[in-house]
């Protein structure tokens, strides 16, 4: 006999936590009661109707939809499901065992196979559990007799007499199959749930379920690999038998593992108690420190109170002496009664000084002590923040580090971090940030939980500096905070545009990528042909390209990067009324006679050159940033040459008529000048030789996921 009592956990429905009743096989191969499937589907439909509220999660006293399953409601609800009072119309729900989404298809519950084998085992378990309870005959007149056999064809139980009456010899019923008393009646032939008139005679190896020949010919299993039912029965039974034999042969090893696990259970109990004691001791120390601080603060307040009360009481007594027939005044009145001049003068001199002091004190009355205790207010804001961050620290949990190269500030803030050991030991990370202000007394950190190693923030102010820090959590254990990193947001809202491939675009010298976010100038054969016209005093033409969107007002910022191999690039802005002049201008770069060693670099020539430019541009190239030669610029040429930042930015303020050129990585202004913003202003770029410019990609919520996939 099989030890029925030892397999009880295998016979429990994962939904209702009771013995299976008419179990059905889900596509994920887990089992569930027929009634439970309907209740789950009805519960989901109730959740749809109530918008997924918690109260709607109580539609069935036996079924509870887990919190992880409730987040599927919105997605399923978009299919327009409506409830029928008898049959659930919903066909999508999470498996209670594995939480996978189960789609029952058009046939719904009717498309699931009933697990008769499991049902038989459950029935044997029930019989073993209620061995003393007899199954009564279904046809006896009251009182019914105990049944002796059950007919599988009639799905009924009989005593000996009733069985002879309903199954007489010589009739068809006499050929019925009968077994011992049972309440589990199963059909002799398993029918296909999709084709109800067809019996299953094949096994689909892809879907791992029995199918009929119609399923294979033109149904959902037409292109699947199938085998005969007998072959599948033999194969699966051999595999199951071998696996069971292997497990039985390893019984000693299993028992050893159970013994080890029992020891681990006891060890876990002991270690948890020890950890509780250590945690209690730590908090007791904090209590002791707080009690000491509390006692010291109360003692200081009490001492100050006594001193102040003493001063005020003395002052009260002094003023009481100024009353008539009382104290000093009474004594003075008695002195005035003295008639001997010499004796009066001897006493009155000192008394007069005291009277004068009392008079002055009366005119300028001030209490001898303050009544407020503002100096004794305890500021616990920082300590409260520290206690709020109090958690278990572990040396085994790595301290994350914010990667400043991968992090960037643009239209949104992208903050990325990594662990030094390159191991993702934390389950979740907490990113905190706050805006830096001049008043750093009360800093309020904003907190956000992150499952990955990057976070996009969109609620930051322009032209502001922020401090960021991150820590990892693994259960209740957390790492120390990372080093704080300070980053600055752009000076103005980000302006989005693409390169214009129509207005003045020279496709012979310039090449745009399909997205029009990158432009490249190739120093190839066309440039060599153009160099035939180069003579002393002639100019080489730049290839210009502008943005496809103009700016009429306000303050805007955009960023881009210039390839390190670029020979010559000019960047800036151009007004709409000078675009035509820009593309037809021949004085773009200096001629050989304008070079410093030519002897023709006079100031008048500088003035002519500057005034002839149709737009405001700065020069980049050979990994350098060249500050234009202006009266305010340093006279030494070497001091006007800066290293080229990896990312550059331009800030155009149309209202103030100024344009600034920034190191977009640090948001530091490198050069700023006035600009005429009378018309629409367009971003302008010029390239010569081998050069390339890439517009900064906007930060989106999926930015890191996209790049991680790449």
UniProtKB/TrEMBL annotation:
The keyword Metal-binding applies. Residues 399-492 form the Fibronectin type-III domain. Residues 187-229 form the B box-type domain. GO terms for biological process: acrosome reaction; spindle organization. Residues 336-393 form the COS domain. Signal peptide: none annotated. CDD domains: Bbox2_TRIM36_C-I, FN3, RING-HC_TRIM36_C-I, SPRY_PRY_TRIM36. InterPro entries: B30.2/SPRY, B30.2/SPRY_sf, Bbox_C, ConA-like_dom_sf, COS_domain, E3_ligase_FN3/SPRY, FN3_dom, FN3_sf. GO terms for cellular component: acrosomal vesicle; microtubule. One of its GO terms (molecular function) is ligase activity. Keywords: Coiled coil, Cytoplasm, Cytoskeleton, Ligase, Metal-binding, Microtubule, Repeat, Transferase, Ubl conjugation pathway, Zinc, Zinc-finger. Belongs to the TRIM/RBCC family. This is TRI36 ligase. It comes from Donacobius atricapilla. The lineage of its organism: Eukaryota, Metazoa, Chordata, Craniata, Vertebrata.
């Amino acid at each position: 006999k099989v030890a029925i009592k030892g397999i009880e956990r295998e016979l429990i429905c994962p939904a209702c936590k009771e013995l299976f009743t008419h179990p059905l096989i889900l596509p994920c191969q887990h089992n569930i009661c027929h009634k439970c499937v309907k209740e789950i589907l009805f519960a989901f439909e109730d959740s749809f109707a109530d918008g997924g509220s918690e109260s709607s999660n109580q539609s069935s006293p036996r079924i509870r939809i887990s919190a992880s399953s409730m987040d599927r409601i919105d997605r399923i609800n978009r299919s327009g499901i409506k409830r029928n009072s008898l049959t659930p119309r919903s066909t999508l729900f999470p498996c209670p065992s594995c939480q996978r989404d189960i789609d029952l298809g058009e046939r719904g519950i009717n498309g699931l196979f009933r697990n008769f084998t499991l049902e038989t085992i459950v029935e044997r378990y029930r019989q073993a559990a209620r061995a003393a309870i007899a199954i009564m005959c279904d046809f006896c007149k009251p009182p019914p007799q105990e049944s002796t056999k059950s007919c599988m064809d009639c799905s009924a139980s009989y005593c000996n007499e009733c069985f002879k009456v309903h199954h007489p010899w010589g009739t068809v019923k006499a050929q019925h199959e009968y077994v011992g008393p049972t309440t589990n009646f199963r059909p002799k032939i398993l029918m296909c749930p999709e084709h109800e008139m067809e019996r299953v005679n094949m096994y689909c190896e892809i879907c791992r379920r029995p199918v009929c020949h119609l399923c294979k010919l033109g149904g959902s299993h037409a292109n699947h690999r199938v085998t005969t039912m007998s072959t599948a029965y033999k194969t699966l039974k051999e595999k199951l038998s071998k696996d069971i034999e292997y497990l039985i042969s390893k019984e000693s090893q299993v028992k050893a593992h159970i013994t080890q696990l029992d020891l681990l259970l006891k060890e876990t109990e002991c270690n948890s108690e020890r950890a509780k004691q250590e945690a209690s001791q730590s908090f007791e120390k904090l209590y002791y420190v707080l009690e000491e601080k509390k006692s010291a603060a109360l003692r200081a307040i009490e001492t100050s109170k006594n001193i102040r009360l003493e001063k005020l009481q003395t002052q009260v007594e002094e003023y009481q002496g100024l009353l008539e027939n009382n104290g000093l005044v009474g004594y003075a009145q008695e002195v005035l009664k003295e008639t001997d001049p010499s004796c009066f003068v001897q006493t009155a001199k000192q008394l007069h000084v005291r009277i004068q002091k009392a008079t002055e004190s009366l005119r300028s009355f001030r209490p001898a002590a303050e009544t407020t205790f503002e100096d004794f207010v305890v500021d616990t804001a920082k300590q409260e923040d520290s206690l709020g961050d109090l958690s278990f620290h572990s040396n085994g949990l790595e301290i994350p580090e914010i990667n400043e190269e991968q992090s960037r500030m643009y239209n949104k803030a992208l903050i990325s971090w990594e662990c030094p050991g390159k191991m993702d030991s934390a389950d979740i990370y907490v990113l905190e940030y706050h805006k830096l202000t001049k008043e750093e007394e009360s800093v309020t950190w904003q907190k956000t939980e992150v499952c990955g190693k990057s976070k996009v923030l969109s609620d930051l102010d322009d032209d502001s500096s922020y401090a960021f820090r991150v820590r990892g959590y693994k259960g209740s254990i957390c790492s120390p905070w990372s080093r704080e990193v300070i980053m600055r947001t752009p000076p103005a809202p980000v302006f989005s545009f693409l390169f214009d491939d129509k207005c003045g675009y020279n496709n012979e010298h310039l090449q745009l990528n399909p997205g029009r976010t990158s432009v490249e100038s190739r120093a190839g054969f066309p440039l060599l042909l153009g160099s035939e016209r180069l003579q002393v005093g002639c100019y080489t033409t730049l290839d210009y390209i502008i943005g496809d969107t103009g700016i009429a007002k306000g303050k805007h910022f955009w960023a881009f990067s210039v390839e390190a191999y670029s020979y010559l690039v000019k960047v800036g802005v151009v007004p709409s009324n000078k675009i035509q002049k820009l593309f037809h201008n021949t004085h773009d770069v200096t001629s050989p006679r304008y070079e410093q060693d030519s002897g023709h670099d006079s100031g008048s020539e500088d003035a002519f050159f500057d005034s002839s430019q149709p737009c405001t541009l700065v020069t980049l190239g050979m990994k350098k940033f060249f500050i234009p030669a202006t009266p305010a610029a340093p006279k030494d040429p070497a001091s006007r040459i800066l290293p080229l930042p990896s990312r550059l930015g331009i800030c155009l303020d149309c209202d103030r008529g100024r344009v600034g050129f920034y190191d977009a990585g640090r948001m530091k202004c490198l050069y700023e000048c006035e600009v005429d913003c009378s018309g629409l202003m367009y971003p302008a770029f010029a390239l010569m030789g081998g050069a390339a410019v890439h517009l900064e990609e906007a930060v989106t919520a999926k930015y890191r996921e996209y790049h991680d996939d790449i």
